[in-house]
């Protein structure tokens, strides 16, 4: 791709369009007809907040393989984007509970258990997790059954014991312990990186990507997922709560191992840049048709301030 074509890419316009598609779909689908106030708690947890990085990765990865995605790929991508955001939202609801991180601020507003109570928050998280998989399995011909099955497998693995939940278990067991860099990397590869890499691979599945493209996108997603956590650890000690939209300094206060506590601030920043370079290098693959959005998202992850 020529520099002139690359320079013509309007990432702001691209992200606005995809974010609007995601918000419209989430607003239309989430919590509808849920009884006894459950829908209100579900919608509070998901709508009107968050960077929506994971949905954007789904779209960008699918378009990297199919530059002009056919209708079936677009339908699968919208559903996959919403599903991965629902899993992310449910995890935040549960992470914020008193039995976990006991946090009171998320996305600049009171956490779900503060707003609705602990039991309703727990149920809202459960319902969001279940609904994610319902979205991936629509009736009719909108999404091929083979694509539905692969999307469910990818999301379940990214969210379960081999991914996010497993990483969270390691995190809880590591409070007050000095981890090696290898141990810390493994914890964050599961806790944070698995769902980010899973988002990328779900986009590849929507586009029915060939093996070479999937391998490149997997390497991109793995590097990006780890970079995200390194930057998160940096921001926890350099940004304030108002900027972050959540409580700053929680990791240090809870004596949790982080890249900053292990490496120091300067080395952690350098490591984030190394991972950014690895992510971009993975995209230099002829099987990928258009990587501009993926490159812009990598920049966003490393340069973000919240």
UniProtKB/TrEMBL annotation:
Instruction: Tell me its cofactors.
Output: Mg(2+)
Q: State a single Pfam family of this protein.
A: polyprenyl_synt
> In its keyword annotation, does this UniProt entry include ATP-binding?
no
Keywords assigned = Isoprene biosynthesis, Magnesium, Metal-binding, Transferase
Q: Which PROSITE patterns match?
A: POLYPRENYL_SYNTHASE_1, POLYPRENYL_SYNTHASE_2
Query: Which domain of life does this protein belong to?
Result: Bacteria
Report the protein name in the record. (2E,6E)-farnesyl diphosphate synthase
Q: Which organism is it from?
A: Acidovorax lacteus
